[in-house]
């Protein structure tokens, strides 16, 4: 049996899998930028224990990637051009128990 996909115009209040839109970052964490200082694109967010069952159930994994609206590919990997290859993507873990998480 196939499930039904519902698209609603509201922010999900659950800490489930999400793509694009707002990230769940703690208030003191700045939005990540690439090596050019451009804001990165929030790509995927998911509970960290989906990646590894040993991780705390309250950790939420936010994955960011580089983005260039002027490039035909839009989402791209700067690792070939980047003097700091580790800045072509970014992973930030947030503790969702914290009242400091921006929702």
TrEMBL record:
Source species: Neisseria mucosa (strain ATCC 25996 / DSM 4631 / NCTC 10774 / M26)
Top-level taxonomy: Bacteria, Pseudomonadati, Pseudomonadota, Betaproteobacteria, Neisseriales
Protein name: Uncharacterized protein
């Amino acid at each position: 049996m196939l499930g039904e996909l519902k698209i609603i115009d509201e922010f999900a209040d659950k800490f489930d899998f999400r793509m694009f839109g707002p990230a769940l970052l703690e208030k003191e964490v700045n939005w990540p930028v690439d090596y050019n200082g451009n804001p990165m694109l929030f790509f995927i967010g998911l509970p960290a224990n989906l990646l590894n069952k040993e991780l705390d159930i309250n950790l939420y994994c936010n994955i960011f990637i580089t983005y260039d609206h002027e490039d035909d590919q839009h989402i791209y990997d700067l690792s070939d051009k980047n003097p700091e290859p580790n800045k072509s993507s970014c992973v930030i873990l947030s503790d969702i128990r914290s009242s400091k998480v921006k929702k």
